[in-house]
Write a structure and sequence with these properties.
Elements: E1 42-43, E2 47-55, E3 59-66, E4 71-78, E5 84-86, E6 92-94, H1 99-118, E7 127-133, E8 136-142, E9 146-148, H2 149-154, H3 162-181, E10 194-197, E11 202-204, H4 243-259, H5 266-271, E12 275-276, H6 279-284, H7 287-296, H8 308-317, H9 348-370, H10 375-379, E13 398-399, E14 415-417, H11 426-431, E15 438-446, E16 455-458, E17 465-467, E18 470-477, E19 482-484, H12 493-503, E20 510-515, E21 525-529, E22 535-537, E23 542-547
Parallel strand pairs: 15-18, 20-23
Antiparallel strand pairs: 1-2, 2-3, 3-4, 4-8, 5-6, 7-8, 9-10, 10-11, 12-13, 14-17, 16-18, 19-22, 21-23
Helix pairs in contact: 1-12, 3-4, 7-8
């Protein structure tokens, strides 16, 4: 085993114990920021903590050393900004009033990283260990040698040819689909969260808790303009997070790689949606690439390519009905308009055989119209998201407006009836499409007889007729100060913890113990204290026993 005294805490290479590392230039006298774990701290009796590599609203990432395997690792600590605080002994505690937010994120952090640890998706940065310690949680990741895609592009001309990008990006599509199958939506795919390894392969990193990638007022969120879908800014009934969210992020990244620019911020595109592609790119890119990007970058998720599998079929196999069109024949000629297409059902070969003559006629007519009647509508002036040509006679082809820009014909004087919100979970209220005409604002939180997380007070009385986008302030219930102990028997450990958190118990007061009993199912809670039905308060200590019996083996 290597002596850790010889390791540089900046790069974890053996530098012979030099004060200033000749490899990375790190000075051993430097210290980590005050809110971070101290350099040379050991966690889980195994991982030596080095300097801070990065931090955001979810936590802090350190360079680390795996003393068991003599290997460089990266250690991610859950430390939500504005919700957690560092104690003098370097443990972590929750800021008063932020307990639920901290614990909700902690469970999500553990679940995501445990899921990735147990997966075998080839294009993810592997998680090799997950554990709880010092009042928080840590995830240990393999230290992949490489640079971010953003840095890679900056040193390679800013863009890649489709032939180059194709081999790099196709494996990512299958990995992202695999993440979705496991219930993980990344919500942060970008040129900064994709690594280009020294082996020439791309890997996805930066997976995080939900609140980091959605605008909110609880933690310091990190929504990446240009890459982020509109539903990450507007989490209402019309705009919901799902696989299509990552379709947008992935395709915005691919667009950036191929074209060198980014789509405008998604919320801005709701008002004024246009995208341009310089003719030199439009001429070179295959027709199905332009069409699939146009479908995948539609603003509204319900209009967008639904999932990564559908996007792959469009991108690779050209499964976009009506997408057959010639590329510009003459060098420098404007590219044709790319129109987002919906997939259809039926036998494409039969349709093709029966309509081939009609298609040829339509294409010839379309080419004539493109250069005459619809010239301006198709080509535009190319002043959005692309560099203008100095030649006034040259044109910049545009990808057809992505998203629905039709204005609403709603009567501004129309009134809407305020619903009864009392007892409803706030998350369900804002997710309900029937409530899209109101603006909800959390005014505060208080103990009440209503279940934790539900609304216990609303500023506008139910049944009141109000105008569209009237603001309704609500008070969120923290649950009762005293209540009956719920039963968590026959649940998994994570299910039991989540139920206890919903009831208002503190995460640090939940102690998990082990017990063996062949009469009960493996991995389930078989005992709890206090027992179900006892009158308790939220500050009480709770013990739950997980069955270590693994079932009959033959």
């Amino acid at each position: 085993m290597i002596s850790t005294d010889r390791l540089c805490m900046g790069c974890m290479n053996d530098n012979g114990g030099e004060q200033v590392c000749p490899i990375c230039g790190f000075d051993s006298k430097e210290k980590n920021p005050k809110n971070a774990v101290s350099i040379k701290t050991t966690v889980n009796d195994r991982y030596l903590i080095g300097r801070v590599l990065s931090s955001n609203g979810e936590g802090i990432t350190y360079i680390g050393w795996d003393t068991a395997n003599d290997a460089i690792v990266q250690v991610r600590e859950y430390f939500p900004d504005g919700v957690a605080k560092r104690n003098p002994d370097k443990t972590v505690s929750m800021i008063k009033g932020k307990e639920y937010t901290f614990n909700e994120g902690l469970l999500e952090f553990l679940e995501i990283n445990k899921t990735i640890k147990s997966s075998d998706l080839p294009s993810l940065v592997p998680v090799i260990d997950v554990f709880e310690e010092n009042g928080t949680a840590f995830a240990v990741m393999q230290n992949v040698q490489g640079v971010t895609l953003n840095n890679f592009l900056s040193h390679n001309g800013g863009t890649l040819k489709w032939e180059q990008a194709r081999a790099l990006f196709l494996p990512l599509i299958d990995t992202i689909k695999g993440m979705h199958d496991l219930g993980i939506i990344h919500k942060g795919i970008s040129t900064d969260t994709i690594l280009v390894g020294r082996d020439g392969k791309l890997r996805i990193t930066g997976y995080s808790i939900n609140k980091l990638r959605i605008e909110n007022d609880e933690i310091q969120y990190e929504v990446l303009d240009g890459f982020a879908a509109v539903e990450q800014y507007k989490t209402d009934g019309e705009f919901r997070i799902g696989p299509a969210t990552d379709v947008y992020g992935f395709c915005a990244t691919l667009f950036n790689v191929l074209i060198g620019t980014l789509p405008a911020k998604a919320t801005a595109r709701l008002e004024n949606d246009s995208m341009s592609i310089p003719s030199k790119f439009a001429e070179e890119l295959p027709r199905q690439v332009l069409s699939s990007l146009a479908n995948a970058l539609q603003v509204r998720p319900q209009d967008r390519t639904a999932d990564m599998e559908a996007f792959k079929n469009q991108l690779v196999y050209g499964e976009i009905p009506g997408a057959v069109a010639p590329k510009p024949e003459k060098k420098g000629a404007p590219a044709q308009k790319v129109k987002p297409q919906k997939e259809k059902t039926g036998n494409g070969k039969v349709v093709l055989v029966t309509t081939i003559v009609t298609i040829i006629v339509i294409l010839l007519l379309a080419i004539v119209l493109m250069f005459t009647v619809f010239r301006d509508a198709i080509f535009g002036n190319g002043d959005n998201n692309s560099q203008q040509s100095s030649n006034p006679s040259s044109s910049v082809p545009t990808v057809e407006n992505i998203g629905d820009n039709t204005t609403s014909d709603d009567d501004p004087e129309k009134l809407f009836t305020v619903p009864d919100l009392i007892g409803e979970y706030y998350s369900a209220v804002i997710d309900n499409p029937e409530n899209e005409n109101f603006v909800f604002v959390i005014k505060g939180k208080e103990f009440s007889t209503e279940p934790r997380g539900t609304i216990c007070s609303q500023s506008v009385v139910k049944g009141t007729s109000v105008k569209k986008e009237t603001k309704i302030e609500v008070i969120i219930s923290l649950g009762p100060k005293e209540f009956k102990m719920p039963s968590v028997l026959n649940r998994t450990e994570d299910e039991a913890k989540l139920e206890l958190l919903k009831q208002g118990f503190l995460y640090q007061n939940i102690e998990v113990l082990e017990k063996y009993d062949e009469e009960y199912a493996p991995g389930q809670i078989i005992e709890q204290y206090p027992i179900a039905g006892e009158t308790v308060n939220a500050d009480i200590s709770i013990k739950i026993y997980v069955n270590t019996y693994e079932g009959d083996t033959y």
